[in-house]
What does this fold into?
Amino acid sequence: MQVYTPPLRDMRFVLHELHGSAELSTLKGLEEVTPDLIDAVLEEAGKFVTEVLAPLNQSGDLEGCTYENGVVRTPKGFKEAYKAFCAGGWNGIACDPQYGGQGLPASLNKLVEEMLCSGNLAFGICPGLTHGAYEALKNHASQELKDRFLPKMVDGVWSGSMCLTEPQCGTDLGLVRTKAEPKGDGSYKVTGNKIFISAGEHDMAENIIHLVLARLPDAPKGIKGISLFLVPKFLPREDGSVGPRNGVTCTGIEHKMGIHGSSTCQMSFDEATGWLVGEPHKGMRAMFSMMNSERLSVGTQGLGLGEAAYQAAVAYAKERLQGRALSGAKHPDKPADPIIVHPDVRRTLMTMRAYNEGCRALAGWVARALDLMEHAQDPQERQRAEDFTALMTPIVKALFTDLGFEATSMGMQVYGGHGYIRDHGMEQYVRDARIAMIYEGTNGVQALDLVGRKLPAHMGRYLRSFFHPVLNYMDAKLDDENLGPLITPLSKAFGALQLATAHIAEKGLKDPEEAGAAATQYLRLFGMVALGYMWVRMAEVAFEKRVSNPDDAAFYDAKIATARFFMEKLLPDVAALWGSIKAGKASMMALDEAMF
Amino acid sequence: MTNVSDIKTFTDIGGFDIKKVAVIGAGVMGAGIAAHVANAGVEVLLLDIVPEGAANRNAIAEKAVEKLLKADPAAFMSKRAARLVTAGNIEDNLGDLASCDWIVEAVIERLDIKQALYAKIEAARRPGSAVSSNTSTIPLGDLTAGLPDSFKRDFLITHFFNPPRYMRLLEIVAGADTNPATVAAVARFADVKLGKTVVTCKDTPGFIANRLGTYWLQLAVGEAFRLGLKVEEADAVMGRPFGFPKTGVFGLIDLVGLDLMPHVQGSLKRALPLSDPFHATLRDEPLISKMIETGYTGRKGKGGFYRLNRDNGGKAKEAIDLSTGAYRPQEKASVPELEDGGGKDIFALLEAPGTAGRYARSVMAKTLAYAARLVPEAADDIVAIDDAMRLGYNWKFGPFELIDKIGAARLKSLLAADGEEVPALLALAADTPFYRVENGTRQYLALDGSYRDIVRPDGVLLLADIKLKSQPLLKNGSAALWDIGDGVVCLEFTSKSNSLDEGIITLLGKALKLVKDKHKALVIYNEGSNFSVGANLGLALFACNIGAFGEVEKLVAAGQKTYQDMKYAPFPVVAAPSGLALGGGCEILLHASAVQAHAESYIGLVECGVGVLPAWGGCTAMLERWATDPKFPKGPMPAPSKVFETVSTATVAKSAAEAKELKFLREGDGITMNRDRLLADAKAKALALLEGYAPPKPVEFFLPGPTGKVAMDMAVAGFAKRGMATKHDTVVSGVLAEVLTGGSADHIEPVPAAKLLELERDGFMKLIRTTATLDRIEHILETGRPLRN
It folds into this structure.
């Protein structure tokens, strides 16, 4: 059963107790962001999700989007929910007040995003894309375009889309064929076909603002000749109202495994009017600020679904009566014990829980860096935050979505056959989670980004933003009576990460295929160490708080127990990962193509 | 390399020793030549005319010496060298010419003035002394016309390149009447004492380098105008891809001066027959003429094709628009053909369809064809042409080496396709390369179609030749060990920029063991442009970024141990640097038994610049050198103070001679002027040390301890107050001071070297853990410039 309750207690723990929310209000522009405000926002967001969005999750999945004559209809109730979502100001909570946003920090917004994803992922995709388009325009568009488009996108009256993919190009955007020709009045004629465009067409917003990658007539070949254009569905009039229809049409939607409530569109641009965003041929730069923000959001989707699946699995494991505990009946009054008594069900639930809470903590660390990038006054501090975000973006995207998918699958497993049938909604989580490992750059591409770009950048400077805090922390806490036993496995895992990093840097420099061969396992290894570090830090807080705040001792004891579980039962995976990385590419690349 | 057969003759003939030189004409070239003769330790007279009505009759030459002292890059290698130049004038000092063995004329390029001067010289000089002209344009036959036979016998052309200290090419032209012994004397002096590579040229206009160089430049400029390239694009194509200086052509012309081009072009235009392809490529560009007229003559003028616009207090890099003549912001060249590994295959570049390809092809095909025409017209063989362009124009490859890269047949078909004439030599080589290696010897293609060995002069030993003939004794990814004969082995660095890494330290350790068992002496030498730029900071930085400090410390310790093993090895170790020997590279020199340095060695302990300190024994070795110098004040403070001064400021000696003043080299260390003679000299030095060789005795130090450190800290605080030391400079200097003063030492208890090494290591590790140091390292690796943080 989809029984989602927003995990507000754990969210408050991450934001206030682990990462210290007091720091936020010391940042310029975030002075108003007090713990009280944060808690109120979380509370309200939780209500909105449980009351409005979650009830539409299964029905939206069953009904799906429909296409007819260029028109896409979202499932029943989505339009009204979107209206309520915008009216509540949720669409622009993290946007600049200059354009009508609420200016709330990423640290808070990421938690709200997580709730949206848990409650109704398909619904959340459209506002997510609007936000990505907002980021790209805010950072790269001319002031004129910003003034014209951003306010309506922030309040949600207009939504956004990202038009990158074409039939012949997905990962390799250098192959883009869509053309843009100057019209002489500062605007361009954009012509071409795009596919897999999420929220490319729907009936929730008054207008849709497409950000389209295309080539100018004089563009150099390949990725260095791509420019970014803003192409609205309706051309706005001077007064801001929507005017005539632009040459953009949706020619069909995809039938797909999951996220049925979100339209995945084929888009046709026929001399559509558009405006250049940023400099000619520098479209990838603008696109990347959108993609980086989106990649972190996709990571959050993995976490959101993992959390939803966990809650559903716990509910079922407590209620489903089958067999008896191996140590003897625990509920002799009942015909059988609930399955939660079984060690393997415990292993499953603990794994899901440890991943979810660990990822939430790590997301909080990265979100704090996003806030520092935006609001810190010291340029060096901003730089460090930027380094850290650049490093962690592929990890958050790939690790969270891999683990999220694993968690939804584990959730289904707890239900047994009842998870595989449609009624309980468990198979929907699995189907919905699967796409997150693919879009916004497949997880394989994320791993290549990590080893190929992030690792060697500035001779490893990005790495410093992670390795040094962890190393310093371990040095400081090694002798701590409570933490010592947790530091030992962390330090072993960290050693494996150092060795693997040096190994890839050395081998990869001589032979890029070696780096490519190690990439996916390296990303997982890195992610596990990051989660391990988060778990020790969480345990540290819990050890203190269980004393200073005894009323909440049960919460903190659970944290400590979960930390131990992670360090003892999950983190040892890194030894195997390192062993495999060390073995190199040879056996992977041995077969001739013809032998496959 | 030289026009080898001739030099061999010079050596055989003997000639005479040149002990004193006169240079007449104290302009840029004459003064520079005089300075460089002084650099060789030879007395030199610098004469010019008496200015009209001047109170000081030597004013012109004296002023020239003053300018030399301020020249950048420095003209003199040491202050001592400057004292060897005597300024005078050609009226009062004419009689002094009798005491000179070689008289160099470097006056204005006017035949009448030169000939009048020659008459005066002939009257005053000692019979048999050599007389040469530094002319770059006037044929020898014209210069000696009408002069007595005695003059013709002793006269030759010696054409130096600017600046004379740094440019290794010397073009020599001998006349039909010139006495071979005179030529031999000058050539040998130029080779051994001045360190020049002598290329013998025929008496044709512009000789070799300027003839071909001017052709290339004017063609490259003209084609850029014709094809509508931006200067940045032209320079990107006509630079690195072909191994030309990275300035490209427009940048190069800015450097030498736009106004110089028409002079050289004019004289070549007058002197070359109309059938010469030179005339077809000579184009008058109104923009360039206008730039020269209005003072835009390049870097020395108001600006050139590029300029630094300092208007409004700014420093804007600008470039000229060749079509409008207006300056605009300089752009990064956008040449897709050169991106993503393009430009590595130069044939592909020549065949590329776009503008860049067309440009490359139209300039290079003709230039290389022109080079082929110059044999036998201007030189006897291709080796002379390649040497001249490499050493006179700083091309990485000579034109015939470039043709080998492209393939003579392919070049021929390119030329044929463009309707260009194919020179005879190119036709001859169409199926065979210009150079080949046969039985371990490099050979070149002679005009008769046969291959001839490239023979090195006596006293020239090149590792490149040895490597063709033999296999290394030891080898890993960063270094190799070669047997160079007579029981001497040579350790060569092969890492990127010869940076020192674990591989080099390991191989050095192995070499020390091997030499002890099987050989007599070790030479550390390589033929890179730099001996070593120091430790591989990229690896260290990466290791630090991932917190692998233990690995870094291990490498520091391993380096210390290996360098100590080298210092106390029971056989001589001679280090032979050329170019940069910085940081860890300098520390190699400090731990060798002796050094044979190329005169152009730039040596220093620059670690503080990147926020660390010398920790492979450099601090300790420098302390030892100053503390044991009998002429230096005794007591615990002077030696540490002196070393602190040199090391904290990352001082680099600008020549081997200056390195002796700073004690990076010792008095007994040798200096070799000619780069090609360095290995042979180093080997000779090692063999000379063999008899009765004993390693040095370990030294103990008396050091001031904390009180000494306080004194140094105060000095640094003073600098910081005056804005001369940054925040992190203070941190770095503080740690350095602690090491050099012996940590917690007091000046009564001796400190053993081992304790100092430990302090070096600890200090290094303390500094490399700071973010400010890591920022410095990253900055220098990425920009090549130090970060002042």
